[in-house]
Amino acid sequence: MKEVNIKSTFFVFDDLTETPLQIQNLMKKAMTARENAYAPYSKFHVGTAILLDNNEIITGNNQENASYPSGLCAERAAIYYAGSNYPKTKILVMAIVAGSIKNTTSKPIPPCGACRQAIAEYEVKQESPIEIYFKGETGKVVKSNSLANLLPLLFDKAVL
Ligand code: THU
Questions:
Q1: Using one digit for the tens of pLDDT, what is the confidence trace for 108-142?
Q2: Phi and psi at residue 117, in whole multiples of 5°?
Q3: Residues with Cβ within 6 A of ligand 1?
Q4: Which of 64, 75, 123, 131 is catalytic?
Q5: Cα 88 from Cα 107, distance rounded (Å)
Q6: Which CATH number applies to 16-90+104-149: 3.40.140.10, 3.30.565.10, 3.10.180.10, 3.30.1330.50?
Q7: Is the dihedral of CA 80, 92, 42, 34 positive or negative?
């Protein structure tokens, strides 16, 4: 038996203004998208904006359903739109803003496990990393250079 350690590296910005202008712009698009989240059950609103390498920006937000599992997270709403409409265009960056509308969170909120798996699929497909930035409503912004940092021991097509 041997111990295996996996290292993940993240970058933490004190606030949005510390990030590059392009990211500030993308995050603002995510914040605007979050305003249209449909989350009457959880009251947890998430917005995301994806920058493609043709410079287009795709946005998404979470959409809930009275049948709870039928709802969809913001990240998957956006990335599946990108995958279905721009199948040959690489995804460069994904910006995510999340938080409950019941209080203001300054804690950066990473994508859920199911969304990590979905984003990873496109990273594997396009053979290049997707940068992930995530934040709460205010405060610090966390950056990962690749989705792989957020999902070690990835299940992907290589095992099928
Ligand atoms: N949600 C997202 O949109 N993205 C995530 O990564 C985590 C959770 C949504 C799903 C649901 O509408 C609400 O947030 C509470 O889980």
A1: 999 999 999 999 999 999 999 999 999 999 999 99
A2: -60, -40
A3: 39, 42, 44, 46, 62, 64, 71, 73-75, 111-112, 115
A4: 75
A5: 34
A6: 3.40.140.10
A7: negative
What are the structural domain ranges in the chain?
A: 16-90+104-149
Q: What is the pLDDT confidence band of residue 54, given thresholds at 50, 70 and 90? A: very high
What is this structure's pTM? 0.97
Ligand 1 center to residue 13 CA distance, Å? 23
What is the pLDDT confidence band of residue 149, given thresholds at 50, 70 and 90?
very high
Distance CA 111, CA 74 (A): 9
> pLDDT (tens digit, 9 = 90+) per residue, 9-43?
999 999 999 999 999 999 999 999 999 999 999 99
